[in-house]
Write a structure and sequence with these properties.
Layout (H helix, E strand, L loop, with lengths): L3 E6 L3 H9 L7 E4 L12 E5 H9 L10 E3 L1 E6 L5 E5 L9 E5 H13 L5 E3 L2 E7 L4 E7 L2 E12 L10 E16 L7 E7 L2 E8 L2 E8 L1 H9 L2 H12 L8 E2 L3 E10 L3 E2 L2 E3 L5 E2 L7 H17 L9 H29 L4 H16 L1 H13 L4
Parallel strand pairs: 1-2, 1-11, 2-8, 5-13, 11-19
Antiparallel strand pairs: 3-7, 4-7, 5-6, 9-10, 10-11, 12-15, 12-16, 12-17, 13-14, 14-15, 17-20, 18-19
Helix pairs in contact: 1-3, 1-6, 6-7
């Protein structure tokens, strides 16, 4: 007999969302998370879609994120080329296209709800190995020098890819993202900017009175940007972004991280499901990665809530989940990967085609509505 019905490895936002979505089901749920709650701050800006807001409201996390900064419009353009498009929340009949929070703030909010009674048995240990059998999956772990194991009808891996659960397809974009908070000379008016440059997309997101920057460039340039003085950094940012937000007046601490596409070839194995960044790590362009992971978690929770306990982790359920998520997952991966490949170069005919594409998208309301709905709610939008 298994120790748990569902055992979740990884207590980040995706694993925590699944755990909270299973409250009240009567299922025995265990949650592996080696780190103590609120152990580290992570200032990376996260753009949550309105669809993700609805999920966070249902699991009781959203109210702890106030004040999340709403994105009312998105302005998309390319440097050195014509064409632009503006996406508007009013045209899309949504209260906002998205919301900006710090990743650390989001993780802390999930931790608080879990501590207050998240419906799962916390396991403060590091998972070291996974074994999937026909009747149950087993997690072997270590804590304070000792070892142990726990079993479950269904094992859910949402640890960001730390454990080698499945074969992974990887593509190195040869890019890195620089993040920082910047102060603008002109109020952002809750507009997010996505500006495509030859080195990669440069995004400026409304974040309180200031703005959150996600600047994609080469790894070498990213290191140089982080080493510059504040004045030197702002000068280069001004040159790359332009004057749409006036003169940049200040920049906070900077950090950078490399960018690659990592896709698990199979997200559903015997007695095992892989979620979030463990299933797909996406480029930050268009902010789809975490939103896709939250939809993964919500869809899996919906299936588990509606099934008999004896069906949990059975091959039929595993296959059904994989089929249910296939279109949304493949669409999100294709969308972000295509944007990066199409816009991160200076090939003249392609630059002209991109500009024409932006013009056409801006002139055809149904096309804009289609893009917004898919970015907001995924393939089921």
């Amino acid at each position: 007999m298994a120790d748990y019905d569902v055992l979740v490895v990884g207590g980040g936002p995706v694993g925590a969302a699944l755990t909270l979505a299973l409250r009240g089901t009567g299922l025995a749920v265990g949650l592996f998370e080696a780190r103590a709650p609120h152990a580290a701050a992570d200032p990376r800006p996260i753009a949550l879609s309105h669809g993700s807001r609805l999920i966070l409201e249902r699991v009781g996390v959203w109210e702890l994120l106030a004040p999340a900064t709403p994105i009312l419009r998105i302005h998309v353009s390319q440097r050195g080329g014509f064409g632009r498009v503006e996406l508007d929340s009013r045209e899309a009949r949504l209260p906002a296209l998205g919301y900006v929070v710090d990743y650390g703030q989001l993780a802390a909010a999930f931790a608080r709800v879990l501590e207050a009674g998240g419906g799962a048995q916390p396991i403060r240990a590091t998972a070291s190995a996974l074994e999937a059998g026909t009747a149950a999956a087993v997690v072997r772990f270590g804590v304070d020098g000792d070892t142990g194991h726990a079993s479950a009808r269904l094992l859910v891996v949402a640890d960001g890819g730390a454990l080698p659960v499945a074969a992974v397809r990887t593509h190195d974009y040869g890019q890195a993202a620089v993040t920082a908070r910047v102060t603008c000379g002109v109020p952002h008016q809750n507009v997010a900017y996505e500006r495509f440059t030859p080195a990669g997309p440069l995004a400026i997101l409304p974040d309180g009175e200031a703005a959150a920057l996600v600047w994609t460039t080469t790894p070498q340039h990213a290191q140089q940007l982080c080493a510059l003085t504040e004045t030197g950094f702002l000068t280069q940012l001004q040159e790359s972004f332009g004057n749409r937000l006036g003169l940049f007046k200040g920049a906070g601490s900077r950090a950078w991280y490399p960018l690659a596409l990592k896709v698990a070839v199979r997200t559903a194995e015997p007695r095992t499901v892989v979620l979030g960044n463990a299933a797909q790590t996406l480029h930050p362009v268009a902010g789809q990665g975490l939103n896709l992971g939250l939809r993964d978690a919500w869809e899996l929770a919906a299936m588990l809530r509606d099934c008999d306990r004896a069906e949990i982790g059975e091959p039929g359920q595993i296959r059904a989940y994989a089929a249910r998520r296939r279109l949304d997952r493949s669409g999100g991966i294709f969308f972000t990967d295509t944007l990066v490949r199409l816009f991160s170069n200076q090939f003249t005919p392609l630059r002209l085609a991109r500009g024409l594409g932006l013009v056409v998208l801006g002139a055809v309301p149904p096309a804009k509505d289609f893009v917004v709905r898919r970015m907001t709610f995924g393939a089921r939008g």
